[in-house]
Each structure stands twice: as C-alpha cells, then as structure tokens.
C-alpha cells in the first residue's frame, strides 16, 4: 500500500507550491489512477513518493516503510517506470539490463536470471533478449523498462505514462499485464496517464490534481456517478426533428441530444416530441466518460475531494 | 550483501561499456602513446632524449588514469542524469556513492589497456635509446594512491553534475589543470614553491607521480622518499580527497533532491 500524508513542495520562496498538502491512500492490490494536466504537480508528487525529491513537509510510506527514514526498506518495496526517461541502458541488451537492475535491488544472480526469463517471456521479448535496447522499437523499450521495474517483484509499482507512444498491440499487452499484476499477484499499481480511456478501463480509483492540489480522490465508478446528474440523453426519432430541438440527422434517423438535471425532465421532453408527432425509436442515457469528468473538474473553480 | 551485489553489478556494467566501446579504447591506445612521444620530442628540442623519456612516461601513465577515471565516470554519469536512467539507480536500497565507486573501479580497469600501451611505447623508446625501463614493485603503492585520489575527484565532479547544469567545462578544465599542476610533464620541484605546495596538497596525482619517480628513477625506498612530503602524505592525501569527495557528493545529492535535479533533460 501507499500512504501519502500532507505532502508539500515549494521550489522557490516566490513561487506557488508545486504540491500543496496532498494526501492519498492506495490500498494493496489496487490500480490507482493519478491524473492531472501538465504542470499540476503529478511528477513532483511521484518523485517525492519515489524519494527522488525531498518534500518540504509531509510523509510518504511505501508498504509501511517511511521513504525518508527507512529508504532502503521502502525502495525494496518499489519499482517504477518514469515518464520522459529512458529508464534502462540503451547500450546494454534487455537481458543485461534486467541482470543489472536485479542485482542493484540486491537479488542473487540465479534469482534475477529466473525472474528475467519469466518477465521477458511474458512481455514477448525472450527471442530478442540479447539485442541492445537502443535498437528496439519504442514499445519494446517500454516493455524492457517495465520488466526492469518489476525484476525484484516489488509489491508496489509506479507506471508514469506506461502506454504513451505505444501502438495498439503493445498498449493492449501492457494494459493486460497491469490488470494481471494487480488482480492475480496483488501488486499495488499507481498509474499516471493522459490517456483517460486507459485510466477508466484499468483504475479502481482515481485522483485528479490541479495546481498542486487534489481536486478529486474517489473510486472510479463513484467519480463517474457524481457527474451522472449532468448526464445526457440521446433520443432517436424517425424523420426530421421537430423545431426547437438540438438534433443531428444521419441516414434517415435523427438523434436529439438532451441534457437534464433531473431524469423526470426526460419524460417531459418525450411528451413534447410525441405532441409534435415524432416517432421515437430509442431513448439512451449517455454515461459520462472519465474525460468528461476530468474536463469538468478542471473547469470548476474548486471541487472538494 | 546488497551493497556487494550492487557494487559488482556496477563494475560489470562499466566493463560491458568498455567492451562495447572497444574502438574508442583502440584509438586511445594509439593516441596516448603518440601524445607521449610528441611531448618528449617537444621537450627535447626535437629529440627523444633518454633523460626525459622515463620521467615523462611515469607522468603520462598517471595522466592516463586520471583522464579515464574522471572523464569516463563523469560523462557516463552526466549521460545517465540527462537520459533519466540515473533516477532508476536511486530506486534501489543502495547508497548512490557506492555505485560511483563501482564506476570508478570499472574506469580504472578501462584505463589499463591505454596505460599499458603508453608503458610499452615508453619502454621501447627507452630501449632504443640504449636504456632499460626500471621496475620496482613498490610503485604499486603510489599508483594505487593516484587511482584512489582520483576517485575522490570524480565523486566531487559527479556531485556537482547533480546540481549544476553545464558543469562539463569544470571537468575539462580540472583534468587540464591537474595534468599540468600534477607534475606529469614538469616535476613539481621545478615549479614555483607556492604552486608545488598547492599541487602536493590537493592534486590527486601529484604525490603519486613524485613517489613513482623517486622509486623508479631515484632508486629510493617507499619509506624514505626524498621529494615531496613522504610516505605519510602519499597515503593520507588520497584518503582525505576521497573522504572529502564522499562528504561533498552526499551534500550535493541532498541539494539535488531538494531542487529536484537528480534527473533532468
């Protein structure tokens, strides 16, 4: 599990806090989405979590170990793929990278070799294990970085934009693998991504940061449900729409989009349509996606977590 | 045990890099001996004078180590900072200074082929001049002092790289200054007293070079070195520089963590 308490970081006396009193709890075996626009403070938070940046105040615990006071024990719990970094040595082969990082984590040679074989096989890289990583495609390099982060079998894994720049096939492999790690092995995964469909698909819980502060921290379903009050409905009718409705016509079918604050209002709209002689084919509630929620959160003046 | 495994992994990685860059090593094995011969030619007014070949040879061997240990380690470290790989090494239970020391061991080993090429060239040139390359096992002590002292210097430069951008010029300048002030070409005894004093005090290779010349060319024993500040300082100086390197590196590292500069493009 990951525990973050009132984490704060200010880079200069005249600057606004990059991270302001952020607290989070990520339970064991869950996939936690950490979202926010560029400059929101995600990277600083993640690097404080990893012990790469010293916070001005607050505390981080990984698997119960304090990152500041029990660094060695905390790091033994942890593996990470950081965004914008190579993460592994391009001059070495995939196998050499895994052996190197495994040994740095304190594993014996035989332990690393066994684990490296499993990981490279799982990620479809076994046949290319002796090739230099510098010659790999972006997706393969990312897979090697993920394998290196996991070489010691850490109970906590941080994946910063793990599917960025990957093709469809590689993205699917990584997504499947994330789910497998969390569900079958109980690994706690902290995932940051700008690909909100990926977050919605994978994350049990989502936190959203804006200007150094958390503006949401809820289970994904609950977060989506919170915004259901602004759900849209789509009503499909035969022929043209009566005047006064927001409609799009395609292939002889007209779709009328209605935004309501109370579901009862939908029935009123249906009655009005019938009164105009419209033949209703279907009525569908449009569920908000995480992207809609994300945009709403960022556009609101403030939002309590 | 974790420390030993991490240290060994770092040394192994350095040696893999060495093997991968064998062409670069090969070029150095040609250019360094050539540089040595050119220096002796210039100093000898166009002749390979026998009285210059051996003293400059010893300075050149020391220079090879400082060049390899500082440049190889510093540039690889800077590359790791800029590519972001360095941050991954911080996500381990190991103290980071131990990994730099691992890099140093690999760099010292990497310096061996070039140093041997320079030695072989020097020995051949001396033989051609009718002389004989002196050999004395005691020379291992000053050579080890040079390697250890250079570790301290590299630690300081790597620490600076964690905090400051564009630190490359300091590294290039420091190697150039040490090449001159370390007495590689001109003995410290021939320099102004103040320069000689400062060189013996802070330049990692200076006491080592003086001791090597005393032992091999002067025929003196380690315990009775006539030039410089004696065996005590020969042993103490690299230890002090390395200790200072560890302290400064840790301070720079703490500063880098506060500023968030451990990894930056």
**What helical percentage do the residues of chain B reach?**
over 70%
Count of domain modules of chain A? 2
Structural class of chain B: mainly alpha
The share of residues in helices of chain A is 25-40%
Main sheet of chain A, how many strands, which sense, barrel?
A: 6 strands, mixed
Q: What would you call the shape of chain A?
A: globular
Summarize model confidence as the mean pLDDT of chain B.
Answer: 89
How many domains make up the coordinates of chain B?
1
Uncertain regions spanning at least 5 consecutive residues of chain B: none
Gross CATH architecture of the largest domain in chain A: 3-Layer(aba) Sandwich
Strand order of the largest sheet of chain A: 6-7-8-3-9-10
Terminal-residue CA separation of chain B:
33 Å
Subunit organisation of the chains: heterodimer
Give the strand tally of chain B.
0
Under CATH at level 1, the class of the largest domain in chain A stands as Alpha Beta
* Beta-strand content estimate of chain B: under 5%
Number of helices of chain B: 10
Radius of gyration of chain A: 24 Å
Characterization of the model:
Chain A: It is a peripheral membrane protein. Chain A: It comes from Nonomuraea terrae. Chain A: Residues 2-236 form the ABC transporter domain. The complex is a heterodimer of chains A (305) and B (265). Chain A is α/β, with parallel strands linked by helices and 305 residues long. Chain A has two domains: 2-225, P-loop containing nucleotide triphosphate hydrolases (Rossmann fold, 3-Layer(aba) Sandwich), CATH 3.40.50; 232-286, no CATH class. Chain A is 34% helix and 27% strand. Chain A is built from ten helices and 14 strands. In chain A, the strands form three sheets. A six-stranded mixed sheet of chain A has the order 6-7-8-3-9-10, sandwiched between helices. A four-stranded antiparallel sheet of chain A has the order 2-1-4-5. A four-stranded antiparallel sheet of chain A has the order 12-13-11-14, with helices on one face. In chain A, a hairpin with a 2-residue loop joins strand 4 and strand 5 (65-66). Chain A is globular. The two termini of chain A are 20 Å apart. With 265 residues, chain B is mostly helical. Chain B has one domain (2-259). Chain B has helices spanning 2-20, 22-43, 50-83, 85-90, 96-128, 140-163, 168-181, 193-202, 206-216, 230-259. The two termini of chain B are 33 Å apart. The mean pLDDT of chain B is 89.
